Amino acid sequence: MKSPALRLFSLAYLVFLYAPIVLLPVFAFNDGTIIAFPLKGFTLQWFDDLFTNVNLGHALKNSLIIAVSTAILATTLGIFAARASTRFDFPGKAGIMGLIMLPLVLPEIIVAVSLLIVLLGIGIPLSIFTVILGHVLAATPYAIAVLNAAFSSLDRSLEEAAYDLGEGKISTFRLITLPLVLPGIVSSCLMAFTISLDEFIIAFFLAGEQTTLPTYIFSQLRFPKQIPMIMALGTCLVAASIVLLTIAEYFRRRGIARTGGKDTGGFL
Asked: Family, per the entry (predicted)?
């Protein structure tokens, strides 16, 4: 029987975790520039300001370019790494995979400063390209984690049957393996896209004169009159993140069901 104290703690934890997210749309539709109760009334003004802001549009464009590039590159690298880790044994395998997954446990500020020093040291100017490099480094371990599950649940006898029927390794991967792990690939792309779109610290250090969506939001927090618009933007970002993660989870579960694997837990 569950303890009442444990239930109370769980409820308090959930309130503490999700109350700020719930309050975002509340103040986004509030007709007032001060974020406080009582509310003054309903308005769509902040969303109108949001969609007519030129600087915000430029920052969003940069973030989308970075996020799409990160999703493609991180997922491609994740496919190679996941395939190697689930199908082959080679010297130093555990150590190599550990180094690849290291960004998961390293503080982002350490990763960002290290990349800044290295990139400036070899003469690469800060730009959108350097942000993409940083985001790929941060998102690839997540892509590998998702794709490892997809490749691990894949029945090897299907590939062996293709070999017996005369298919080569490349054609077998293209015709048999890739379609079966496609839900995991889509899930990995969406996860990497979401991580890149929301990431702030690496973009703050590596963007140079370019502005991304998170750095733009940070810069606007100094101006009290801009806070309601940021609340509206936050509402849109939360909604988009929930949609993307839901789609990613759908494809993840579809991939597990398709390959007959066991669901060991996911994003949602």
From this structure: Belongs to the binding-protein-dependent transport system permease family. CysTW subfamily.
